[in-house]
# Entry
Amino acid sequence: MPGTISTTFIIFAICAIPLIFIIRFMVRRKKRLQLLHSLLPPELEKILSKNIFPYPRLSQKMKNELQGLVNVFLAEKEFEGCGGLELTDEIRVTIAGEACLLLLNRNLNNCFPALQTILIYPTAYVAASSDIIGGKRVENAVTTRAGESWQNGAVVLSWDHVRHGVKNYDDGHNVVLHEFGHQLDQESGSANGAPPLKTYHTWAQVMGHNFEKLCGKVESNKKDVIDAYGATNPAEFFAVSTETFFEQPEKLKRDHPDLFAQLLKFYKVNPLDWN
Ligand SMILES: [Zn+2]
# Structure
C-alpha cells in the first residue's frame, strides 16, 4: 500500500538522518584522537624545532602533545595562499605550531572549532571594513593589515609578519598568537575579551582593572609592557596580553602580576619555564 510505504519511509528517514550525523561525528572524533596521538613526520617536526621558539624547550610529553595538535590542525583546516603566495610546509606548520601553543596542556577535545580557513598573503595587505551604525552600514577607511580573525571561520595573516614573529619571539609582537587569541575569545560567541570560562567574576575584575591601567598610561603617553594597541578595546587587550604573556612573561609578571596569574590559569602553561 503506497500510504504504508510512504509512512515507513518517513519513519526511516527520521531515524536515519540523526544516525548519519552521529556516525559522522564519531568517525571524525576517532580520526581526531588518532591524529592527536600521532607524531609528525621528521621533516615537519624539524620546522617546529626551527621556527617555534618554545618547542625545543618543552618536555618530551608536551612536544608530543604539540605535534598531535598540529596534526589535527593540518588535517582539519584549509590553507589558502592569496596575492600569489605559494603555500609550503614551512608556512602551514609554522602557523599551526604557533597557534597550537595556545591549546597546549588544556585537555581540549577540539582545535579552534569555528575556524575553517587560514588565508595567507605574502606581506601586509589592504582591506576595507564597515560597521553598522544606527541601522546603516558605514564604510571605514581602507587600511593596511598584518592579520585578522573573523567569527565566520577565517583567519587572515601576512606571511612576512608571521616570519617577523618567528625571528623576534621575545619582542612581544606575534601576529599568530594575536589572531588565534581572538579566535579563542570569539568561541564565547562575541569578541569581548572573555573566552569561554567556568566563571567570569575574577576574570572580569582582573582584565577590567589592567585594561583601565593600560588606557591611563596610553592617555598620559607612558610606556607599558603591553602594547598600546591593547587599549583599543577589551578584545584587543586580551589578544595583545596573550602576545605579551607568551613572549615577555617576566615583564608581564613584574608589571601586571594579577593579569599574569589569570593568563597562567587560562593557558595552563608557564612561558617562564621556556626562557
Ligand atoms: Zn586584534
